[in-house]
Write a structure and sequence with these properties.
Layout: H1 2-13, E1 19-23, E2 42-46, E3 56-57, E4 75-76, H2 77-88, H3 96-107, H4 127-158, H5 163-167, H6 181-202, H7 207-212
Parallel strand pairs: 1-2
Antiparallel strand pairs: 3-4
Helix pairs in contact: 2-3
């Protein structure tokens, strides 16, 4: 909502006539859905809707692939498609809507692309691969524990029959991500402190020492 309020202030001050905004991220449609007024004269396009992930392109294993020394995807499919379309069309003649439809047609063929940001293959049977598999197994076990805890919370709040469906429900298209933006912002702030705690542990400070402080 803070960003929307900035746009409202700029529109009221007459600091722009028309504006085009693009956000390339997973679930990026949630930034605007249900909260963006139409009178602001802003054309918005996002790499995904409010519930789905965006897609990477020029990744290892794709055709064409990135140079062999790189193990990452070179870009977001939607933004790359938009830039490549801009290089092959006369933008003085094509409208933004025409360009959007052209890019949308290319990015809708998901079967040609893989989701994700990067990956690297290890040799079968290698010690490194066994260690990675162990870490993944531990991570998945921890996530399953957290998921189970949330399921119990949902059952306690809404009952065993409705708890899971309510916790995993998605809002109707056109509705904002949340109603209580203050609560959401406070949650983000707490997540930022989790990064601080992770950094202290990476610098050799035991987690129990940080918690006791």
């Amino acid at each position: 909502m803070d960003f929307i309020n900035v746009l409202k202030k700029k529109h009221a001050a007459g600091t722009y006539k028309e504006m085009v905004l693009y956000i390339g991220a997973c679930e990026s449609g949630s930034v605007f859905e249900g909260v963006m007024p139409k009178y602001l004269n802003v054309y918005i396009t996002t790499a995904s809707n409010a519930q789905e992930s965006s897609w990477g392109t020029y990744c290892p294993g794709m055709e064409p692939p990135p140079p062999p020394e790189y193990i990452t995807c070179f870009g977001d499919l939607y933004s790359v498609a938009w830039m490549e379309d801009s290089e092959t069309h006369n933008l003085k003649k094509d409208t933004v809507e025409q360009q959007y439809q052209s890019v949308k047609n290319r990015t809708s063929n998901f079967n040609n692309y893989n989701a994700g940001s990067h990956y690297k293959r290890s040799e079968n049977g290698s010690e490194k691969k066994r260690e990675i598999v162990k870490q993944i197994t531990e991570t998945m076990s921890h996530r399953a524990h957290l998921d189970g805890s949330m399921e119990l919370i949902g059952a306690f709040l809404y009952g065993p029959q409705k708890g899971s469906s309510i916790l995993n429900s998605v809002r109707e298209p056109g509705m904002s991500l949340v109603d209580d933006w203050g609560c959401l912002k406070s949650t983000w702030r707490k997540l930022a402190w989790l990064l601080v705690m992770a950094t202290t542990q990476a610098n050799g400070i035991p987690s129990n020492r940080g918690y006791s402080a």
